[in-house]
Amino acid sequence: MPNYLSGESSPYLLQHADNPVDWYPWGEKALERARREDKPIFLSIGYSACHWCHVMERESFTDRRTADYLNRHFINIKVDREERPDLDALYMQAVTSMTGRGGWPLSVWLTPEGAPFYGGTYYPPSPRFGMPSFLQVLEAITSAWSGRRGDIVQTAARLLEHLGRENEGPDPKAPQPQLLDEVTDRLRDSFDPLYGGWGEAPKFPQPMVLDFLLAQQTVSPRPDLASHIGLTLDAMAAGGMYDHLGGGFHRYSTDDRWLVPHFEKMLYDNAQLARCYLHAWLLLGNPHYRRVVEQTLDYLIRDMRHPQGGFFSAEDADSEGKEGAFYVWTLEQIQEVLGPEEAEFMVSSYGVTADGNFEGANILHEILRQGQATDNRIAPTGGVLEQSHALLEQARIKLLSAREKRPRPARDEKVLAGWNGLTLAALAEAASTSMSTSDHYREMAIANARFIAEELVDTDHRLIHVWKDGHAHGNGFLEDYACVVDGLLALYQCTFSEKWFALAQGLTDTMIEHFRRPSGGFHDTSDDHEALVVRPRSLHDSPTPCGNSLTATVLLKMAAYTGEVRYSALAHETLATVTAFVTRAPAMFGQWLSAFHLAANGTSGLAVVGDLSTAAALELLSVARSSFRPALIVAARPPGAETIVPLLERREPASDTVATAWLCRGSTCLPPTSDAEELSASLDA
């Protein structure tokens, strides 16, 4: 018989709807029953593409003996972390405080009032590797609940007090001038010089950290950091974490070489990485980075897009009950699909062997030769280069076509506001550059923004968090507002349609009204959100920008567009709340670092007024878009047109036939110019 999850819309919850565990969704019904029956709550948090969530379900939640024990002694609640990031942040913080580590599936035990007192992540069905079995944990908690209730109550009270202090954070501290140099040196010292990236296995992509380092290169170039950026981007795109047939990135690498991925594909990873590689291409000029951007965005459009314009959340790691089955190849399978010449070249270029590198099969990965330029990475140099690329592309298309006939991994078809904001920004920025030879990315960006505006924006500029199958629900979170505003500002700079700027500013003002903390910074939840045991406030960036860091970023951009001091003052207040943290572990504060960079170096505003369809106006705009300029915001309009963008007010060219640009840094504006070369020199000065 189905449990209480059968009426939910979340794919993750529906995956558990037929478990023998008597699961409830989070809500008053479950909490009231826990209070009435005086039972502890077992809270299990995960997401649909989570491999170890599936493993724990197969091993424990479908086991009748385990389910019967859970049903007798606990009130059992399932939560989709993507639908309820507030609950995930709160209880992940609790488990991390108790155990020093976190992850999914997240397993937490609560008092009937919702206070956490014990937790962990995955538990095996039988004791192994020094871990107790899941049933042993359940029995120990049941015994403690009946025999040592006072200890549990005290533990929960102490933990809530600790969480309250952590959410309050240290006293605000103004950033010091040397902060960016300090964190840059720390990132240099913790860098992996052999394979790129930061940290040991499992190794995660760090697009926010890479974006910060790219931004730093625009103001104070350092050859050592440039090599770190290049090595990391090259290694990630060459390794098995990148899908060399269909485009896009898997979640992370289980080893330190970027070879064996955890095969799930997340919208937020691909949106952020596409934008990061775009910035790297603009700054460093490597044509391979451009191909990565195009292949990643094309993957999202092809496989992750709803016909109405929104983008789905994730694709599973598993298919046919096996992790990675959709993506890996045996030597025989490749030879069967390709002719002898193509197969031989594909095998030698992508590291294919008879024994394989993953459970008897092969994860495709490019062979990087020592000292080889990345745009020539898998092909001989000289006259055969173009022919080699063509041969590989032909083989790739054939293998992709054959792969499409395999059973696909499950797709989580939730459309989340924040993750769509990240995707909107990537599409809009790609459309703004010379990378796109057609209006395809521009059209996709506009369709995505239209979907957000029509389906996820309620009255009074209130965002809705999630949409699925025609139904939107859930209060928007801080990260939703910040991500969507950032995406809308990128789309405004792509189209110069002021309706997108108006929506961005309306959402910004709503965000300030409902999320601001009197002592500085912002809460994750609005002032009319469900009351939890602690009102969460996330400060770490991982794996998406936390709401506060991206809020600080968009407030600085909005201040540059409007000249309103209130936006910049709130941004600096927010930055001050984490100054004491960022130098300790900078890899966990990537978006914060970009916001600090923007605050320290200041923004520049470029206003272009002229017929935007003429070559003269387009040439001025092309100068601004031809390189990575993270501190530059751009506005444009035709002569004589009314505007709601203060940066464009009271600016008219000498003649309607002459496009003119005004470049301002802070409160100082340079003389207007109609000369693209002069503008370029001013931007580079």
Folded structure, characterized:
It is a single chain. The chain is of the alpha+beta class and 685 residues long. It is built from 25 helices and 19 strands. The strands form 6 sheets. The chain has a 5-stranded mixed beta sheet with strand order 1-3-2-4-5, sandwiched between helices. Helix 16 (417-432) runs antiparallel to helix 17 and helix 16 (417-432) packs parallel to helix 18. The longest helix has 20 residues, at 149-168. The termini are far apart.
Give a short account of the largest sheet.
5 strands, mixed
Percentage of residues in helical conformation: 40-55%
Mean pLDDT rating:
93
Q: How much β-strand is present in the residues?
A: 5-15%
What order do the strands of the largest sheet run in, or round the barrel if closed? 1-3-2-4-5
What class do helices, strands and sheet pairing give?
alpha+beta
- Number of beta strands: 19
- Low-pLDDT residue spans: 369-384
* Rg measurement, Å: 26 Å
Number of helices: 25
Shape: globular
Q: Span from first to last CA?
A: 70 Å
Summary?
With 685 residues, the chain is of the alpha+beta class.
Give keywords.
single chain, 25 helices, 685 residues, 48% helix, 10% strand, globular, five-stranded mixed beta sheet, alpha+beta, four-stranded mixed beta sheet
Helix and strand layout, with pairings?
Blueprint: H1 11-15, E1 23-25, H2 28-37, E2 41-46, H3 51-61, H4 64-73, E3 75-80, H5 85-99, E4 106-110, E5 116-120, H6 134-147, H7 149-168, H8 179-189, H9 207-219, H10 223-238, E6 252-253, E7 261-262, E8 265-266, H11 267-284, H12 287-303, E9 314-315, E10 318-319, E11 322-323, H13 331-337, H14 340-349, H15 385-403, E12 411-412, E13 415-416, H16 417-432, H17 440-456, E14 464-468, E15 471-475, H18 478-495, H19 498-515, H20 547-562, H21 565-576, H22 579-582, H23 590-601, E16 604-609, H24 615-625, E17 632-637, E18 660-665, E19 668-669, H25 676-684
Parallel strand pairs: 1-3, 2-3, 16-17
Antiparallel strand pairs: 2-4, 4-5, 6-7, 8-9, 9-12, 10-11, 13-14, 14-15, 16-18, 18-19
Helix pairs in contact: 4-6, 9-11, 9-23, 11-12, 11-16, 13-14, 14-15, 16-17, 16-18, 17-18, 18-19, 18-20, 20-21, 20-23, 24-25
